[in-house]
Amino acid sequence: MDFKNKNVVITGGTTGIGLATAKAFINAGANVYITGRNASNLEKATAAINNPNLFTVVSDTSKLEDISILEKAVAESGKKLDVLFLNAGIATFEPIAEVTEANFDAQFNTNVKGHFFTLQKLLPYLADGAAVVVTSSTVATAANSGASVYSATKGALNKIAQIAANELAGRKIRVNIVSPGPVLTPGLETAVPAEAKDFLAGATALQRLGDPNEIAKTVLFLASDDASFITGTEIVADGGYLNYALK
């Protein structure tokens, strides 16, 4: 797919799915802005991609003042955005009885509030006909023990994206959702113990974890003209996880 001279913003672009998607857009000719919470991770991402069309912004999605930093960077670029990939996310897994207010707030601030206000602040900079893609998760549909708060954030994000698709249709801006299943990312490595990775792989029909590059290809499809009649839709890229778990 050709994204030559297209302008892309990716929140949470320093590792995992965000980094893989940034590489894919760069390889397709786009100018890509990625955000991250600290300069060190952004420097590592810059080295990994090693392309002058990559730009970085230190911005924590969970903080409104940091979203304003991203907005300022986009405004100063003087460019309209063709693609906005709302990807930043965090997760902690624990039973309801053990959830703390701090963990609850951290997940909702990053996974819901952050994406909502990033979209709101960047609306004036989206080109008519732009594409917005949101990273959700199969947990928005599944009911896994220990995932109550994380699942709730993704369910809320799905509904925001669906309503945004309706509200932005007049500008021909498409808004879609990609919901990965278990994908081998640094975030997964941190969130679950090693033995859980084998369990998750075995819970998919394909009997393996996903690769971030596979999700990146899905994002590029949704952002491309090949998906010009798709909006308000959730594409599940989970190796058959949801269907296999229910068979």
CATH class: Alpha Beta
CATH fold call: Rossmann fold
Give the low-confidence spans: none
Percent strand = 15-25%
Rg is 17 Å
Helix content: 40-55%
Global shape: globular
Overall pLDDT metric: 94
Number of helices: 9
Q: What structural class should be given to the helix and strand makeup?
A: alpha/beta
Written description of the protein model:
The chain is α/β, with parallel strands linked by helices. It has a single domain, classed as Rossmann fold (3-Layer(aba) Sandwich), CATH 3.40.50. It is 45% helix and 17% strand. It is built from 9 helices and 7 strands; from the N terminus they run E-H-E-H-E-H-E-H-E-H-E-H-H-H-E-H. It has a 7-stranded parallel beta sheet with strand order 3-2-1-4-5-6-7, with helices on both faces. Helix 2 links the parallel strand 2 and strand 3 (54-58).
Summarize the structure.
With 247 residues, this protein is α/β, with parallel strands linked by helices. The protein has helices spanning 16-27, 39-49, 64-77, 101-122, 148-167, 186-191, 194-202, 212-223, 241-246, and strands at 7-11, 31-36, 54-58, 81-86, 126-135, 174-180, 234-237. It has a single domain (7-246), classed as Rossmann fold (3-Layer(aba) Sandwich), CATH 3.40.50.
How is the topology of this model organized?
Blueprint: E1 7-11, H1 16-27, E2 31-36, H2 39-49, E3 54-58, H3 64-77, E4 81-86, H4 101-122, E5 126-135, H5 148-167, E6 174-180, H6 186-191, H7 194-202, H8 212-223, E7 234-237, H9 241-246
Parallel strand pairs: 1-2, 1-4, 2-3, 4-5, 5-6, 6-7
State the main characteristics.
single chain; 247 residues; alpha/beta; Rossmann fold; globular
